[in-house]
Input
Amino acid sequence: MKDYIKLSFILFLICFISAFLLSFVNSKTSPIKEKILSDKEYKAKKEVFEEAEKFLEPVKYKDIEIYLCLDKNEKEIGAIIKAAPSGFSGNIFILFGINLNGNITGLKVISHTETPGLGSKMEEINKKKSEELYKKNNLIKKDKPWFQEQFKNFNYNDLIVDKDGGKIDSLTAATISSRAVCNGIKNAAKKFFDWYKNKNNMNNKNIGDEEQIDAQTSATKK
Amino acid sequence: MTTLENLKKGFTNEMPLLMYMLGFCPALAVSTSVINSIVMGLSATFVLIGSNVIISIVRKIIPDEIRLPSFILIIATFVTIVDLILGAYLPDIHKAIGLFIPLIVVNCIILGRAEAFASKNNIFQSLIDAISIGLGFTLVLFLIATIREILGNGSFLGFDIFGDWFNNFFKSEFKPVIVMILPPGAFFTMGFLLAIINYFKSVKNKKS
Output
């Protein structure tokens, strides 16, 4: 009996020390990690929607997050959508911009757990491949991952990988990952337009009121 | 065993991967590119050094009955530290091999060294043992990854090595052998390396 107490005490002691050590390391590294993530996200937003000047606070709708984008004149020109379609192994977190015509303005994969060397090539930079794609679509930037760049200016309805007869070049030996990204964008875009229509219908009722208030306030100012 | 012998063994007759077939899981999984393999090897070496030293220090305090759980706890602590540090300072590489870092906990090389060496020897010898075995493991990982990346992707450390000169020389483009970066490629590479090693072993045996 005494033995058991001694044994569990020693194990407890080891656990205690290791937990203490880990919490120390975590407190040092987690702010750096968070900063990396938030920096990456702002940069990514600007990259996927260059024309946008201002990004509104995110709105959650079903399983996507929507950041409405405004241009210089505070007019709505589109949205950036965060979605997480499931890939070959785990979810692929993507961020893409879409304008009100349904054309993709840019795509960025934020994080994924696809197979290293295959699905992970969605982040590969390949000059030759980019050059090839540039001939078809001159919006492609050659110093960015070609797989993500090729989505630019595609209508969300036309996103089909080449294996299924579409025009999106899939990743070699990673068709499932490529297909997951295409379908993820398609579904998220559909959800966004649902949401956007609803929102506008709601607003049309309210806009009248707002204009009245504006008129009133300007009148009182005068 | 002298210190020098201790230092050399990880590269010669006690090379964990090629001699004992230990630690296959990370070797097969992360050896798709050279940079991943180096980071993986060095991470494992760090964990090995940490766990070997600590286990050697506490070897007389820990009772025999709870030896294994204690070792695993110590190893897991170091692995988590590596995981956190990589995530903060090398986010890109962490993203690529992050899946396999936690698996270092169950890497048989590390528990094997703890059980077979660190729990029986003093701190200094355990440290040397960890460095030797760890770097030996890294070296083999590097070798496998070099072969696989060059053949499977046509690059080394991310640089394209079959560029224009290959085009001019062979009048055709280099087409990577994709199977080499797929799981079977790891087995092929491993098989060939083992065949070479065994050949030299048998030659040596005949001579003696």
